[in-house]
C-alpha cells in the first residue's frame, strides 16, 4: 500500500538524507513551495529543480508513488485536508542567538518533529507492531549512543508491565544474546541513521535466530529496514548544532511511548496491576508536597 495522502510532505522529509543531490533539489522545491508545485507539470518541476524529468519520476517512486502524477495528486489531497502543517523550524541555531531565540528554535524543532513523526504512523503497521510486542515471550532493544538511552527507556517501560524486556547498548552483548532468541521473541533495533553497524549486527543475529525483528529509524531506505519485518519511521533532521541527537531522540522516545501504551492496553488488567504495583513500591522514596526532607 502506498503512502497515505496526508503524509506526502512528511515522507519527503523522511527519505531526504538518502536522496541523491539532484533528487534533493526536487525535495527542496516541494518542501519550500508545495502549493506552487501543484500547478507544475513534470517538465516544469524538473526545470524549477534544475534536474531531469526522469529524476522527478524516480523521486516520486522512492516515496512509494507510481509516478509524478500520483505524487502531485497526493500533494493536492494533502493541501485540501485541512491538516495543519508542521510548525517550521525558523532557521538553525547560531552562535550569536540569544537564549530566547534558542528556546524558540528548539521548541519549533520539537513541535515539527513530533507532528511529522505522528503523521508517519501507518495504523495497520502499528497494530502489527503492538500485537507482536504484546504476545512476545522476550523483547530485546538494541541501540548505541543516544539511541542506547532510548533502548534503556523502552526496557524500563515494558518491564514495568511485567514483560521480559532487555536493553543492550554494548555491541558484543547485543549480538551474543540476540543469537539466543527464538521464534516468539521480538528484537527492536533503534538507529536514527539506520546504518549503525553494531545495531545492524545484533538485529541480523536476532532474525537468523528466528525472532520477529523491528526497527525504529529515520531513513526509509536505510540498511536496518532490510533486516526488519516491521519498520517504524520517525522524523527529525539533525542539523550541525543539533548533532547531539536532540530532536531525533525526542521522535524515538515518542514512538516507544506510543508502542508501550498500545501494548499495555492489549495486555489489559494484568499490565495495569503490575504498573500500579511498581509505582507503589517506590512511593516511599519520594518526598510529598509540604513535607520536610531529612537524610536519615
From TrEMBL:
Annotated HTH rpiR-type domain residues: 6-82
Domain SIS: 129-269
Keywords: DNA-binding, Transcription, Transcription regulation
Organism name: Carboxydichorda subterranea
Pfam families to which the protein is assigned, alphabetical: HTH_6, SIS
Record carries keyword DNA-binding: yes
Protein name in the entry: MurR/RpiR family transcriptional regulator
PROSITE patterns (alphabetical): HTH_RPIR, SIS
Domain of life where this protein originates: Bacteria
Coiled-coil region(s): none
